[in-house]
Amino acid sequence: MSSDSPDVSRSESQSEQPPKWQPPVMDKSKELGDAPHPSSPVAEIRGKIYPRSVRGTFATWRIVFVYLTQIIFYGLPWLQWNDRQAVLFDLGARKFYLFGLVLWPQDIIYLTVLLIISAYGLFLFTAIAGRLFCGYACPQTVYTEIFMWVERKVEGDRVARIRLDEQPMSLRKFRLKFTKHFLWLFIAFWTGFTFIGYFAPIRELGHHLIHLTLGPWQWFWLIFYSLATWGNAGFLREAVCKYMCPYARFQSVMVDDDTMVVSYDYVRGEPRGGRSRKIDHKEAGLGDCINCTLCVQVCPTGIDIRDGLQYMCIGCGHCVDVCNEVMDKMGYEPNLIRYTSGRAITERLDQGQARKRVFRPRVLVYTALLVILVAVFVGSLATRNSLKLDVIRDRNSLGRVVDEQTVENVYRLQIANTREEPVEVILSASGFEGIEVINTDNNSNKVVLEPASNQLVPVVIRAPYESEMTMGMHPIKVHIETDPVVGRAESRVEPTNFYIPNQ
Q1: What's the predicted TM-score (pTM) here?
Q2: What confidence score (pLDDT) does residue 22 get?
Q3: Low-confidence residues of the chain, pLDDT below 70?
Q4: Can you name the residues that pair with 264 across neighbouring β-strands?
Q5: What CA–CA distance (Å, rounded) separates 126 from 107?
Q6: 3-state secondary structure at position 393
Q7: Which fold has domain 387-500?
Q8: Domain residues of the chain, as ranges?
């Protein structure tokens, strides 16, 4: 039995080895040095992460996207278009203004299509490159980056912040903490104010804010969004990405072995270990990873990318930048950690070969659907009818015969003009010979609509009365038509009923 034991233990140890496509499982407690590693899941959730600052290509791109997204967010509400706010979602007036486009409640289909386009765009980009949106454009990521920049400027880099938090409260610590939170609250307040400015005219909102005359709901949402920004970006930070964001949970069904994600080349990097720059690490049986743990220290979510793809990874590329710095100092080949696919690492494909495999059937289907939806959306907007019509019968007066020659019915026409200039429309009807529509306000068949307005027009529809007409309801159609504008006349037709009374 003793002679068989080595064989049994050897077979068991071999069965416990991970498959080739997985990175080897390492004992973190021996390799991460001063990087904080909690001993339980509860401690992991409660523990604070102190990301180290990093410079490099991807860090620069993150800064670019921070500037780009915030210039758009903070700047859009202040732009003017036709003497009004260019982008305004006026819930009170039930109108959405997007530069020259005015959307009404009847245009909810455009919002639906836009949400579908956004969903397919998310599927497409995730299938190609994982959580790029999370790393570079997600509001949670962007504001966390801004708040962390303020924190570094006030309290110092990673080690300085750790030491400051470990110190007992003092005048210096209080001053630094107060300054940091004051700046955080100022940014959060301005963010909340700007957000409210998308739903209420921001210039008027600023005037009311200065004079403290905001309405109760405006005060509520201003305080709510300010505190939400302060709490999410200042305190929760990576916890939102790791435990609250639903995208982190379902992204795994959209990525596969050909998705370009931040990956550690464990084939090249293992076995890891410290060494001198003077030795030949390959002769010493070591991989390129020197186990410096800097990739963990710069990670905003506190994960170890060397453990393989994890749902907590937001694809920011900080570990790529810091690892390349280390590889440069050691004189090794760069991109030990890089954007690549799992297949590229296991099958040792170069970046060109990996990129070619990105265009697989799933990606092509997503792309085709996205192109079709965008084409339909843009085409529908381009050919959108600026007139909207609803015919309302007067229930108090079914119909009457006038001078034994004419039958009259009373209606109200609800006409919406979504253009930003006044327009004159001509009223008409069909269904009987000689039928006509008269606007009772001006005794004509015309009405002038104000820009971006919804008007209720009282009208009388008349038809010649003939003795052979059958008593009861008869279907007719009401027409409105504009003069040609930019070479194209617009019209609307709405069916209704015309009542013939008993003479």
Answers
A1: 0.78
A2: 43
A3: 1-46, 467-468, 483-488, 503
A4: 337
A5: 30
A6: strand
A7: Immunoglobulin-like (2.60.40)
A8: 18-384, 387-500
